[in-house]
What does this fold into?
Amino acid sequence: MKEIQLLFLQAGWVAIPLILFSIFSLGLFIYINFKCSVILKSLKSKETSKSKEASVSQSEEEWDELSHSLIVSASWIASIAGLSTLVGLFGTVLGIQAAFRNMQESGQVGLDIFAGGVSLALSTTILGLGVAIPSYILYQIARTKIAGLEKKFFSR
It folds into this structure.
């Protein structure tokens, strides 16, 4: 636990958007799961009182209406995965720049002068990937759930 706290402290302000991205990604995933379960329950209740009167185009329109917010939410999770990587990379560049600036200002070359900037660079890279990788996995799970729901929707 101390290592994680140290990681956030070393990353500085770059950690703030990454924390927010992580929370937002998880929240969207929970929303998608909740909405999928609501739609599934609705489909099961409609199965008992189903009539074959609905045309294919009506079904497609109904699916488009039901799935729109799910697909948009899943797309946001994918965007968060990409943005987290870029924010981590931005922090890496800032850290390397700080390392070279510290060496220039001190007029010396040494590991202890260079280490602070490299520490920032590595911390932001780790945090960026630590948000991006789980977000990408959540995106894939969400897309699979939506595809399964779509299959159930049209097989009724």
